[in-house]
Amino acid sequence: MFEQVITHGLLTPLALIVLVVMLAISLFHILREYERGVIFFLGRFQTVKGPGLIIVVPFIQQIVKVDLRTVVMDVPSQDVISRDNVSVRVNAVIYFRVVDPQKAIINVEDYMAATSQLAQTTLRSVLGQHELDEMLANREMLNADIQAILDARSDAWGIKVSNVEIKHVDLNETMIRAIAKQAEAERVRRAKVIHASGEMEASQKLVEAASKLSEEQNAMLLRYLQTLTEIAGEKSSTILFPMPMDFLEGLFKPKGGKD
């Protein structure tokens, strides 16, 4: 009986020491440079502390840690119907961070899940207002529009959306073939326009050349002789070269102007 009392007498101080040590350990918290602690006093918001060593009174105060680093979140592929009734699948990535720990903890239950869901719905709504050609050609404009909307709507949660990037716009095989045909037709159209422009410029130059040659009677004859010289260099045995009769009048006309 005496030994049991001694044993209980030794355990009680030891238990108290252990309890004090545990309380002292739970009293101090170390927050890293990118962390903040939202402090609640008896369930009510008190302040935001950190970084460094902070003191939190056990059972009276509670701490919720918040990471302030930029989060890279992948937005799952979304089925989008464009304004010209084309069905595509689009996925994106968003970059955001917490700028107000108090709002991020108090105003929303889970700011990560809320931001993800908001990004998905915003991606569908914004892209649905544009045509397929705009999705493929004007990604920078669409990224800016989505980023502005997300940043405005998530401000109440203490979230700052810094960037949005559309990664892929997936099309079905039928639409890919249709786009290829459209691109081919566009190239053919451009080729015809370029050819017509070249013919127009060539005709203008020919008119200018004809006007210049007509100023001197022998200029056209010299041009014909030059062309004949170039043809003779091709080593052809027979050369058929048309020549206007006006050029021959000067050769057969008698001197002195008599017929």
Automatic annotation (TrEMBL):
Coiled-coil intervals, chain numbering: none
GO cellular component, one term: plasma membrane
Main localization of the protein described in the UniProt heading: membrane
Sequence ranges assigned to domain Band in this UniProt record: 26-183
Recorded topology in the membrane: Single-pass membrane protein
InterPro entries (alphabetical): Band-7_stomatin-like, Band_7, Band_7/SPFH_dom_sf, Stomatin_HflK_fam
Keyword Acyltransferase carried by entry: no
Compartments, as annotated in UniProt: Membrane
Pfam family, one: Band_7
Keyword field: Hydrolase, Membrane, Protease, Transmembrane, Transmembrane helix
GO biological process, one term: proteolysis
TM region positions: 6-31
SUPFAM superfamilies, alphabetized: Band 7/SPFH domain
MF GO annotations: peptidase activity
Entry similarity comment: Belongs to the band 7/mec-2 family.
Protein name stated in the entry: Regulator of protease activity HflC, stomatin/prohibitin superfamily
Protein source organism: Vibrio hangzhouensis
